[in-house]
Amino acid sequence: MSSTWHILGAGSLGSLWACRLARAGKAVRLILRDAERLKAYEAAGGLTLIEKDQAQLHAIPAQTAHDTTPIHRLLVACKAYDAEHAVAQLAPRLVHGAELILLQNGLGSQDAVANQVPHARCIFASSTEGAFRQADWQVNFAGHGFNWLGDQANPLAPEWLDDLSDAGIPHEWTPDILTRLWRKLALNCAINPLTVLHDCRNGGLVAHHCEVATLCAELSELLQCCGQPEAADGLSEEVERVIKATAANYSSMYQDVRQGRRTEIHYLLGHACRVASRHSLELPHLERLYRRLLEHLSARGLPCD
Ligand code: NAD
Ligand code: KPL
């Protein structure tokens, strides 16, 4: 198996992973949207990682999906709503037994991707690292966070985890990746939509304690019902803790809406409501929250999926 890391999507997380792997001497190839983006990237001369006020340029080779080299390992670093289509474009290049690492937040996109590539192994990831871009081909990283990786179909850890250690990417292999993803989804559902609707920082939700607690109770019921009792354990307390610990921050969904960007709502609150309905579970507050958020988005001309 080739040890090259193909990285699909040179946005915030994709660039962060690409720069750290390249810095550690690993072979990395970026896969960009189209020839125009490739030309712009080549003109910039590479990706710049800004960490602790230090900027470092990494001249990582790039290509588009139309390149013909086979892919053995693919880090999928696009948004949840782009992942299925982006991977479908690359399916012919994936060798039998190729490994995909799916960095998407929420749930639903991972299964959609896996269905596109039955000949590949799909490893799910849940990341709490925070990266953002102020300009094209540049990524800022504060240096905090962690990555959990796992494969619910195969508990065997891949050998390339050593590459992550060499690159200083904090990570742990876990057989309970779905529990991690469900827990993060529940946290995001309890916090992010309310920050949008109340137009506040995370800390502003302290004033809406009862609303948050009611949502946590319904989310816990959902997690129990869909076989994720561990993800439900102490959810309300953790949500309160996160609200206080990130009081000064604007949630990622708040920032998306503020900047007129599409949100990942379909894979967060949308997924929670769809799973509840599949289990004939009535969660009136969660459903009402979803409806209010969809109205809020469509009033601003933002996609609801
Ligand atoms: P982003 O929007 O910064 O980057 C996504 C990139 O994918 C964009 O550059 C986009 O052009 C590219 N892309 C989309 N379709 C493509 C295609 N067909 N071919 C090539 N490139 C394509 O997104 P992000 O912030 O890096 O987030 C990626 C995922 O990681 C999301 O699900 C997000 O929720 C999750 N996540 C992000 C962070 C973070 O700090 N940014 C933290 C944790 C989890
Ligand atoms: O992960 C988050 C986000 O902003 O997306 C927080 C606010 C920490 C939890 O929902």
Automatic annotation (TrEMBL):
<dbReference type="InterPro" id="IPR013328">
    <property type="entry name" value="6PGD_dom2"/>
</dbReference>
<dbReference type="GO" id="GO:0005737">
    <property type="term" value="C:cytoplasm"/>
</dbReference>
<dbReference type="GO" id="GO:0050661">
    <property type="term" value="F:NADP binding"/>
</dbReference>
<dbReference type="InterPro" id="IPR036291">
    <property type="entry name" value="NAD(P)-bd_dom_sf"/>
</dbReference>
<dbReference type="Pfam" id="PF08546">
    <property type="entry name" value="ApbA_C"/>
</dbReference>
<comment type="function">
    <text>Catalyzes the NADPH-dependent reduction of ketopantoate into pantoic acid.</text>
</comment>
<dbReference type="InterPro" id="IPR013752">
    <property type="entry name" value="KPA_reductase"/>
</dbReference>
<keyword id="KW-0521">NADP</keyword>
<feature type="domain" description="Ketopantoate reductase C-terminal">
    <location>
        <begin position="176"/>
        <end position="293"/>
    </location>
</feature>
<dbReference type="Pfam" id="PF02558">
    <property type="entry name" value="ApbA"/>
</dbReference>
<keyword id="KW-0560">Oxidoreductase</keyword>
<comment type="pathway">
    <text>Cofactor biosynthesis; (R)-pantothenate biosynthesis; (R)-pantoate from 3-methyl-2-oxobutanoate: step 2/2.</text>
</comment>
<dbReference type="InterPro" id="IPR008927">
    <property type="entry name" value="6-PGluconate_DH-like_C_sf"/>
</dbReference>
<dbReference type="InterPro" id="IPR050838">
    <property type="entry name" value="Ketopantoate_reductase"/>
</dbReference>
<dbReference type="InterPro" id="IPR013332">
    <property type="entry name" value="KPR_N"/>
</dbReference>
<dbReference type="GO" id="GO:0015940">
    <property type="term" value="P:pantothenate biosynthetic process"/>
</dbReference>
<dbReference type="InterPro" id="IPR003710">
    <property type="entry name" value="ApbA"/>
</dbReference>
<dbReference type="GO" id="GO:0008677">
    <property type="term" value="F:2-dehydropantoate 2-reductase activity"/>
</dbReference>
<feature type="domain" description="Ketopantoate reductase N-terminal">
    <location>
        <begin position="5"/>
        <end position="151"/>
    </location>
</feature>
<comment type="similarity">
    <text>Belongs to the ketopantoate reductase family.</text>
</comment>
<protein>
    <recommendedName>
        <fullName>2-dehydropantoate 2-reductase</fullName>
        <ecNumber>1.1.1.169</ecNumber>
    </recommendedName>
</protein>
<keyword id="KW-0566">Pantothenate biosynthesis</keyword>
